[in-house]
Amino acid sequence: MKRVAMIAIGMLALLVQVYESRAQETLPRIGVLKWTITSPDMWNTESVAYARNADIFFVGTSYGYVLVVDTEQGQIVDTINLRAYPGVWEKIKGQSQQRVIHLGATHDGSLIAFGIDNTVKVGTVMIEYPSKRLLDSSERGLGFHDHYPPQGLVLSPKGRFLAMDYGVVIDRQTGKTWKTTQRAQFGWMCFDEAETMLAYRTDSIINGVTFDGFVVIQPLADTGIAPVNTGLYGFPAFSDDGSKLMTSGGTGSVYPPRVSLESKAVVMD
User: Fold this and answer.
1) Which H or E run contains 25?
2) Is 126 exposed, middle or buried (0-12, 13-18, 19+ CB in 10 A)?
């Protein structure tokens, strides 16, 4: 019996090797791998932001710091350590982990914002780069404006606006804070390049009918204007000039009665 088991294990290992070999032969390759960075502190963070104009990556870790990666050389060139900010670190140092989550960055890399997992009292942390100056955190007025755990935040391309879960938008230029809807899902949203529009998934009720997962557009020039319903559902993305809105993935539903809508990709002018 032991010999049979050993043979079976050997055959299974051989099959796995053959499968991996064939998968490597048949799977399409896009581009050429330039470099790889591994770090034991990067696991389970799901947090990365690319500053395209500066060509650097910001990578969140599980233990309270952010790696700054030069994408041309593939090297960690700097770190942003929360231990340097006592007002923030004192609130999270006793946690088993201090995961940096929902990391966002401006296109020029001069500003990053992020949350810290399971620590609602810290809220959102915003840091200037490369000076590493702490611009704001919850004890200085910038935090999650709801009792629910955070699901996402996004900085606008130039850093004027910060959008957080459950409909909170902060205009950093004027200091104005307002709420768009009660259940905006800013983990899946986008700004246009000129920072004039914000598109996001939300739930809305129109004439007693609930539209779940649909995308609306909030004009930012006049925040008194109600969000515009697009009739699309899924995860949104603007073209750079804002002339096209694309949605893909993510299902939507309408009720009552509940009707689930199929996932599809759509481009709208």
Assistant:
1) helix 2-26
2) buried
Q: Read off the tokens for 194.
A: 């000129």
CA distances from 120 to 22, 139, 164 (A): 47, 12, 13
The predicted model gives 32-36 an average pLDDT of 79
- DSSP class per residue in 100-149: EEEEEE-TTSSEEEEEETT-TTT-EEEEETTT--EEE-GGGT-S-SSSSP
Determine the Cα–Cα distance for residues 248 and 237; give it in Å rounded to an integer. Answer: 9
Helix H or strand E encompassing 254: strand 252-255
Classify 81 in phi/psi space as left (phi over 0), alpha (psi -120 to 50) or beta: beta
Structure tokens at 160: 């004027």
pTM of the complete model: 0.77
Count CB neighbours of 34 within 10 A.
Answer: 9
Higher confidence at residue 28 or residue 63?
Answer: 63
Distance CA 220, CA 165 (A): 17
Q: Tell me the one-letter amino acid at 127.
A: I
How far is the C-alpha of 21 from the C-alpha of 156, rounded, in Å? Answer: 43
Q: Does residue 167 contact residue 183 with C-beta atoms inside 8 Å?
A: yes
Q: Are 68 and 61 in contact (CB under 8 A)?
A: no
- What is residue 171's three-state secondary structure? strand
How many Cβ atoms sit within 10 Å of the Cβ of residue 252?
A: 21
* 101 contacts 45 by C-beta, under 8 angstroms: yes
Upper half-sphere CA count for residue 131 (Cβ side, 13 Å): 8
Question: What pLDDT, on the 0 to 100 scale, is given for residue 7?
Answer: 41
